[in-house]
Amino acid sequence: MSSVKLIADSGATKAEWCLLQGKKKKTIFTQGISPYFFDTAQITEILEKELLPALKGIQVDEVFYYGTGCINPNNNRIVKQSIKNVFKDLTVIEVTHDVMAAARALYGDDKGVACILGTGSSSCYYNGKRIVINKPGLGYVLGDEGSGAYLGKKVLQYYLYNTFDEELTGRFNGRYNINSTSILESVYKKPLANRYLASFTPFLSENRGHYMIENIIEDALNDFFFHHICKFRESWILPVSFVGGVSYHFQDVLKELCRSYEFTPGKILKNPMEGLITYHR
């Protein structure tokens, strides 16, 4: 009898779980799990309340968890202990980072440069077996160029500095019932500011074609190319592939930037789960 596997792909905003039982699969979503914001007890509580009920008592044998922040050894231990608290009889447990999820989903056993553009951003050179060079982001305060948080921050800057023209300001006010006081309070006083910033990225998707919107998107993604992808000499030799919501929604800009930098564009996936299912099966 084949073992029951549970694969997790967790960003800062949401986590996707896939239960594999032979040829059957079941997808479950929970809130994102970032060990930078949650401790062991909090993550355990999230898993018990949001994940376990959807499993309906199924015995899980193997867990493969890919998550934001798990490249940090201490964060890795926090997540691994939380999983052990919830699943008592695992035969296999692997906790690794979201960059490895991107690499395995995009390339399998092949080589290439893998990039994540979701709520946060990151990149690596993957040799088909392991990540040889990793260029992690510096988080939404110092870095995360090209990410949803970075793009959302640009939107708010344009709005608060009154850089948007009258048309875009009107659209913004119509879309969001907020003011400068509530924005600053959410960014500087409330938890999970990165999620809050990223929540303004859809405004860019909804207003494509306006020159200010196009400038924000291109400038933010170009910052990612310049500070991250250009640091790999392999970027001019091997395919450059992308995963994440930002990658998926602005793939036309990514492809154009690849042409400008003379990179070979590879795959662009909205999320890595299907690739991870193929890899682990």
Describe the model:
With 281 residues, the protein is of the alpha/beta class. The chain has 13 helices and ten strands. A five-stranded mixed beta sheet has the order 3-2-1-4-5, with helices on both faces. Strands 8-7-6-9-10 form a five-stranded mixed beta sheet, sandwiched between helices. Strand 1 and strand 2 (14-21) form a beta hairpin. Helix 1 packs across helix 2 (73-86) and helix 3 crosses helix 13. The longest helix is centred in the last third of the chain and has 17 residues, at 211-227. The protein starts with a strand and ends with a helix. The mean pLDDT is 92.
Give me the number of helical elements. 13
Q: How much strand?
A: 15-25%
Rg, nearest Å? 19 Å
Which descriptor suits the 3D outline? globular
Topology:
Elements: E1 5-10, E2 14-21, E3 24-31, H1 40-55, E4 62-67, H2 73-86, E5 92-97, H3 98-107, E6 112-117, E7 121-126, E8 131-136, H4 139-142, H5 148-160, H6 166-175, H7 180-188, H8 193-198, H9 202-206, H10 211-227, E9 239-243, H11 245-249, H12 251-261, E10 264-269, H13 273-280
Parallel strand pairs: 1-4, 4-5, 6-9, 9-10
Antiparallel strand pairs: 1-2, 2-3, 6-7, 7-8
